[in-house]
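User: I'm putting together notes for a lab meeting next week and I want to include a structural view of one of the chains we've been expressing. I don't have a solved structure, so I'd like a prediction I can at least talk through. The sequence is below, exactly as it appears in our construct file.
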Amino acid sequence: MQSLNVLIVTQKKSKYVDTFRQSGYLNKLYSTSKEEVDVVISLNFNTFKELAQKCRALQIDVVLVEEEKWVMEGIANVMKKNYVNCFAPTTDWTNLGLSHKYARTLLQKYNIDVPPVINLPEAFPILVKGDGVLKIANSLQDIISIKEGIFKTSPEISKTVFLEEYLHGEKQVVISVFDGKHLLTFPNDNINRELLKDYSKKLEAMFLEEKANFVGFINSELIENNGILYNTGFKFNFIMPDLSKNIAPKPSDILYVCLSAIYQKLNEIEL
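Assistant: Thanks for the context. Below is the predicted structure for the 271-residue chain, given as structure tokens.
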């Protein structure tokens, strides 16, 4: 059995330490948290390059990034350049979270449902979206005020603003992991299994057709409404998927999933 040295990149104490310690594939567990954690080895860094060099020296096999802002700042790019397995999207894919307009255009290209754009609002609330902008408007005056505020802050961002239908329903976070060839999406009991399966296939096709070259976890924010599964956004921090049920061919183990992704064998896992 291959044993892995794992690094959790986080500012706070990770809530997943105990889960990793229970893995049959764990050798050593490291963390960048400055908080005292008795069961892990502390690893400090000033730059991503310095961290990558330490990972190489310590023979760290898997880097999991809990801090979304560090994903946005390009930690995966630096790790990849230094041949370290960092489970996070590279910056060319963080645009899915940074730009609602970019994400909408790309998702529609692959027939993934997104909430309708509204030109003349007849009912409220309504969402005002743009690059890095997400606000709820309850009246026409709210829309005007929000747009004026965005324009004063950044005329460029104001050009990306659009109105989107507010979907009623509970937003669900669905966790997927991509290995460069295959996408594995973990079930969510609150979403119709067939709808989620169809969504996962389309998302995988998008990554493959667009030649995505990262390995890592990506979280979709979804709302099921009137039998349609809508994507309302993406997040990039590492969230532990629910592995309470066994996965085939091995018992549920997050590091087995990571190991499968490293060798591009996620297609061999059955959920």
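A couple of points you could mention at the meeting. Residues 174 and 244 are 15 Å apart (CA to CA). The longest strand covers residues 216-225.

User: Perfect, that's what I needed.
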